[in-house]
Structures
1.
Amino acid sequence: MRKADILLGLQWGDEGKGKMVDFLTPKYDIIARFQGGPNAGHTLEFEGQKYVLRSIPSGIFQGGKINLIGNGVVLDPVLFRKEAEELAQSGHQLHDCLYISKKAHLILPTHRLLDQANEAAKGKAKIGTTGKGIGPTYTDKISRNGLRVGDILDRFEEKYALAHQRHMEMIYSLNEAAVAKGGTPVSLDGLESLEQEWMQAIDYLRQFRLIDSEHFVNKALAQDQTILCEGAQGSLLDVDFGSYPFVTSSNTICAGACTGLGIAPSRIGEVYGIFKAYCTRVGSGPFPTELFDETGKKIRDIGHEYGAVTGRERRCGWIDLVALRYTIMLNGVTQLLMMKSDVLDTFPVIKACTAYRINGELTRDFPFSIDENVEPVYEELPGWQTDLTHCTKQEELPQAFINYVNFLERELNTPIKIISVGPDREATIWRE
Ligand code: GDP
Ligand code: IMO
Ligand code: MG
C-alpha cells in the first residue's frame, strides 16, 4: 500500500508552504489540507500571477489533481465562498477538483465574536490571533459542541439555532466581565446580516462534493494513488509542542495529518520540513532570536515580511537551530526545504543560533518554556553577497552559500533537498 507524504512548516508559519506544495503537486494525485483554517495564508506565484489561498489546498493550479479539505480543518463558509468565487473568476473552477470532508468543523459568525471577546479578556496577554474564530471553533470541537460540514445535509437550522444560543450566552457573559473590568464589550451590530450571508454560503457549500474523506484517502492509497498532505501554520504553533499558550488551536505537526485525514501512522512516507533561511513570527509570544534592530528591519523589508492574512508586520530574527532540531524530531522530517535564501543575499555576516544559554547553562535541547531567560548563542558565518535569484541550478550557487547549507545540514542532521531563491514557482533548485 502507498504511503502519504506530508509537507509542513518547521517554524512559526509562513515558511513558504504554498509555494512548495504547488511546486511538488505534479508528483501527486491528491493534495490534502489536514488542519487549520482561514488563519492560513499560502502564497503562490507563477506566470506573473500571485494567489493567496486560505482554506483551499495549494494543488489546484497544476490541473487534473484532486484537492481535499480534510476533517481536521475548520471551515468558514463565507470566507470559503469568497475564495472559491475569486478563483472561479480567474478561471479556476473548483467544483470538480475540490472535495470536502463531512467531518470538517464549521466556523460560525459567533465563533469570530468569541475569538475577539477572548482576546479582549486577555488584555496585554492576548495571543494576537488572526481573528478568524479558530480557537473557539476547535474549542467547540473538543468540548463536543461543534457543527460539522455533514450537519448541513440534515435539519441544519435546528442545530444552528442551538449553537447560536449557546454562543450568545457566552458572549453576553464575556461582555459583562469585560465591562466590569473597564474593557470594551464585543459589538453585536450587524450579526444578523452576517448570519444571513453565512446561511447563503452554506447553500453554496452544498454544491460541493461533501465526502467521507477518511474512506476516500485510504482507498486512494490502496489503489496506489499518491497523496501530499499540506500543513498550515508551523510546528512552533502546535497546540501541544509550540510556544504555549501563544499557539494555534490544532496539531500542526506530522501527527495532525493522521488525525486530520484518517491516515494511520504506518502509512506516512516522506515528511518534507520547510523552513526559511531566517525566522519570523506573527502575533504575540516568545521568539528568542528576534531582532529589534536595523538587521531585523532589513530582513522584513527585503523579505516582504507582512502577514498574508492580516497584513501585520512579521517579527523577524535569525534562524534558530535549537527550535529546528526540536521540530525536525517531532515531525520525523526526512528531507528539508530551505526557503527565502535570496533574502539574505546582501548580508556580510549570517548568524545562526546553535544553542540557548539558560541561567548560565548551555543547552541544545528545546526547553519547556522559551521565555526571557533564554539567551541565544550564535555561530557567525560569512555571507555570500551574491544575487541568488539568478541561480537556476546547484552548480551556480556560490561557495559561501553552499558552506552555509552544509553547516545547516550538519547541525540539523537532515538533508536539505530543495533551495528556494525567489517567490516564483520557477525559482526553485533541487539538490542531488
Ligand atoms: P506559507 O503560509 O507557508 O504558505 O507562506 P506565506 O505565503 O505566508 O509566506 C511566504 C512568502 O514568501 C510569500 O509571500 C511567498 O511568495 C514568498 N516566498 C516563498 N519562497 C520565497 C523565496 O525563496 N524567496 C523570496 N524572496 N520569497 C519567497
Ligand atoms: P500559515 O499557514 C503565521 C498565528 C497567529 C497567532 C497564533 C494564533 O500562513 O503559515 P489563530 O488565529 O490561529 O488562533 O492565531 O497563530 N498564526 C499564524 N502565523 N502563519 C500562519 O499560517 C498562522 N496561523 C495562525 O498570528 O499568533
Ligand atoms: Mg502564510
Note: Residues 9, 13-19, 41-43, 45, 308, 339-340, 342-343, 420-423 surround guanosine-5'-diphosphate (ligand 1) (CB under 6 Å).
2.
Amino acid sequence: MISNQQDPTWWQNAVGYQIYPKSFYDSNNDGIGDLPGIIEKIPYIKSLGVNFVWLSPFFASPNVDNGYDVSDYEDIDPQYGTLDDTFKMIKQFHQNDIRVVFDLVINYTSDQHHWFQEAQKSVDNPYHDFYIWRKPVAGKVPNNWVSLFGGSAWTYNAATDEYYYHLFAKQQPDLNWENPKVHQAVKQIIDWWAEHGVDGFRLDAISHLKKNQSFADVQDQEAAMNNVFGIEKFLDELSTDFKRNHLMTVGEAGGVPVTRAREWVNTKTGYFDMIFQFDHVSFWEKFTVGKIDVAMLRKTLTNWQNGLEGIGWNTLFLENHDLPRAVSYFGNDGDMRQQSATALAMMYFLMKGTPFIYQGQELGMTNVSFDNIDQYRDLDSKRFYQEELAKGATKAETLFKLQKKSRDNARTPMQWTSTGGFSNHQPWIEMNPNHQTINVKNEQADSNSVLSFYKRLTTLRLSDPVLLAGKYQLIDTHDHQLYVYTRESARKGYLIITNLSDTPAAYQVTSDFQNLELVLTNRSAEQNPTAMKLQPWSAYLYKYERK
Ligand code: GLC
Ligand code: CA
C-alpha cells in the first residue's frame, strides 16, 4: 500500500518516468495518445522498474502549447479521455506500486479559462485582478518586457483599454500572484487532486511566479520575471498546501542558481522537495547548434551535486519534453547510438538525487530529422522558423537548427514495434522513421539494448543504500572526454568511469581503490583497472572498498 504520510521521503529512493501523454500510446486509433493507452502500458512501465510517473498535462485545454495552457484544472481534455479514466489510471498505477505525479501549470492559465474570460470583460469584474494588467504608455505597450516565445509580453485588451502580461504565448495570460485570491483558487485545485490520489506535482515555470513590481524597462529580461525578489512568499504559501497533503514536489526552476536552490529545496525549510535546473543542458541557448563540452558538463553537474550536499535533493535528468534527445545532443546517434546512449545513462543515473527517464530515452530514441517546416507541430519551433526567415536566414540553415534543438524531437510518438505500434491512424506528429529498428519490441529481445541497460541501472540504483545516500565526488580528469566520479559511504563505494567522446582514452584507477569488482559495463571486454583503454562511449561501474 502506498502511503506518502508514512513514507514522506519516498521520492529519494525512487526512479521517475516522464510520460508525454499525446505521444505515448493511442488506444482508440485517432492518432493521439490517451489515458486508456497509458493504462494499457502500465505493465511496460512496471517492467522498467521505475516507481513513479510524471505526466505532462492532459487537462482541458485549447492546446495552443500542447496542454500547458489549461482552461479547466479539474477536467480532462476529451482527446485524452475522461475524469473517470484519470481516476482509474491513478488507481491502477497505485495497484502496481507506482506513484503518480501531475503537472501543475499555475504561472498562467489558458485565455479560455473562465477566470480570464471573466477578467477581460471589465476592470470591475471580480476576476480582473487574477491577471496582470497595465495601461498603455504613449499608446503603446507598457514596457520592454518580452515573451519567451518571441515578441512583446503584452497583448492589448480593447474592453478595458489595457494590456495583459504573458510570459509565453498570448493565449497564456500570467496569473497575478500578488492577489491572495489566486492562491486561494489554486489551493482548492491542489487539495482536489490530492483527494483523488495524486502523489505529487511538477510545478511548471514556477520560478516566474513573481513579476518585478516596478514594471519598469529592464536591461536583463530575467530581472522582470525570473526568481524575482519576494517570490519566496508565494512559494512558501504554496508549500503549506503541498505539505498538508503529503505531496511530493519538483519545481521547474531554470535559472535559479544553486545558492538560491539551497533555500528552495532545503530539507527542513524549503518550498519544494526538488527542482529541475537546466544548467547542464544549455536550455537557454535555444536553437543553437553544437555539443556540450564534457569539461563543462562535469563542472555544472558537480556544482549542483556539491552545492546541495547535505542540504537538499537533486533531480537527475538529460531529457524532457522541451529538450532534444540526449543521444543526439550529448551523444553520437549514428553508429555509436547504443554505446553513447548507455554511457550517458550511466553517467547521470548514479549521481546523488532522483533520476528521471523521459519516455523513449530508455530506448535511445533519437532526434527526428524533419526537413520541412510543415512536419513540425511545436508553436515555438514554427515561430522561430518564421522569425529567422524574416531576418534573412535560409530555409536550410534554419531547418538544420530545428533538427538539432526543436522540442518536437522529444515529442514524436513512442516507438513500440517495427511498424510503429503507436496507433493505426496517422499520428498527430510523424513518427521517427527509425522506429523500424529502434523500438520496444526489438530492445526487449536484446540483452545489450539501451532498454536492457536502463533496467539494470534502475534495479541497481534502487538496491544499494550507497547509491541512495553515498556522497558524490568528482575525480577530475581535466580533459574533454571522461566523466569519472564516485559515490561513497563508510569507505565503500561505486566508481563510475565513462568516456563521453568519439575517441579512445586511457585511464588508471589509483591504488586508493581496493577490491575492485566490475558491476556493469556497456562493453563486452573486461579491463585492467590500472591501465584502462576506454573505447569511445564506453562505461564501467566498479564497486570498491577504500584502503
Ligand atoms: C514550461 C513547459 C513547456 C511550455 C512552457 C510554457 O516550460 O515545460 O513545455 O511550453 O512551460 O507553457
Ligand atoms: Ca487516442
Note: Residues 429 and 526 are 43 Å apart (CA to CA).
